[in-house]
Design a protein that fits this description.
- By secondary structure, this protein is of the alpha+beta class.
- The chain contains 11 helices and 6 strands.
- Strands 1, 2, 3, 4, 5 and 6 form a 6-stranded antiparallel beta sheet that branches.
- The longest helix has 67 residues.
- It is elongated and about 135 Å long.
Amino acid sequence: MKSLGLSLVLLCFVALGGCATGNRGERGEICSADGNHSHAIHGKSLEKNKFGFGTEALIGVVDLDLAMLVDIALENNPATKRSWHLARLARAQVGQANSTFFPTVTLGGQIARSESNAASSGAARQETLATTFHPSLEIHYSLFQFGAGKAVAEAAKQALCAANCQYDRTIQGVIHGVQRAYFALCSAESTVASNEHNLNDAAAAYEAAFMRHQSGLVSIQEYLQAKANKSQAEFELEQSCAGVETARAALAKAVGIKVSRAIRVLPPAIATNAADMDRAMDGIMGNIARKCPGAAAAYANVSATLRISNPAEVADMDRAIDDFLGKIVCLRPDVAAAGANVRAREHLSRSTRAKMLPEFIIGGSGNVKKYSHRSDSFNNFNLFAGITWKIFDGLKNFYDIAEVRENLEIARQELRAAKLSAQTEIWTNYFAFKSANKQLQAARILEQSAGEAFEATGIAFANGLCKFTDLVSAQTCLANARRQRVVSENNLLTSLADLAYSVGGVADFDLTKNR
């Protein structure tokens, strides 16, 4: 009996030691985008960046810049917290998958109280009270199943990799959403300021028309037109004021706080020339490209080929852009997550096939039965080795294989769709930024020219050198130029944020200091 007990103890140590050796370097690690183990998942790996002070407490106290709004959003937006808990859930599932490498130990026990009465002929009845103690221990360990357990564990780690990539993308999405909402609010406030100028110009034109109409120098039609223009300017001003509150509500939602008029923002400064903004865009693209081997050189090649003016060399431009997009698209966390999902489905496919093969198991059990009214005890120890093979289960294994095969193909198509979508977004946002940069420069020149034209027309009208319709036309052109400039500024900043988000990064707007 002692030898059997010693053998059972040695079996436990061997099983535990073998499990720890076989799983070393796997528990507590996650997979990088290329499938390699990179870093442990813990509080620091997914910790949110902070300034070190309570930024949210500054709402209503100071005007917030973009960096403060982003900091508040990372602390309060539900999307970041949800994705963080999803990553922790995936980490727990890795632990669940790794649990198959360890034996299953079941400890049981039973205490029974019994009473018996016995009597023989001619003797007094004898009553016996007994307490029985019956502890038991069972150990079950899957020794070998053709790699099914390892495949499940690898699939779980790839799922964790995908969850971490999605967490990164969620943070990028939150920051990108705050940037767009911030620029929309600043644009709405600029629209209000522009419409206030338009109302002042329309009011001045109306006063001039009223005075000349009293003197008989302006017809009633021209006077009524000036009055209509002033009313239109008042309408547009009130409409733009409502737009500010709509944009403020959208910003509050993006940040993850309750909407309040206490949310005030500092307007961003925009580079005065196109070259500065191009350098800012090149800096963002260069920082992203340096994370991927060969992407920086590919981007430099793209920048060179974009200056091609010979139609015969357009094919070279397309090849350069395709080469750059092919390299940089894999840096996007959502694309990396889709790749991790494909690898997870591949491991699950191998696991499902392995489960159709036999499973070799070993184990042992032991129990002791001891009575309170007796000095001896009964001990029972067992060691066993066996094989289980599910030969037929109603074709369930067959359909399981079909399921994982189709899921694998779905994941591959999702990866392909993610790459195509990323390439399309990068292409669209790159040229949208290029166009927005030029549009802003043109809009600024247009506003300056329209302002000078309106001023000159006003002087000419005061001296009787032009008609009132000329003054109204100049005032309308100036109002339209102001609106175009505001829209162009918003489009430029938004397109830069969109471009950075599409390549898997975040635009750093520290290059434009607040006014």
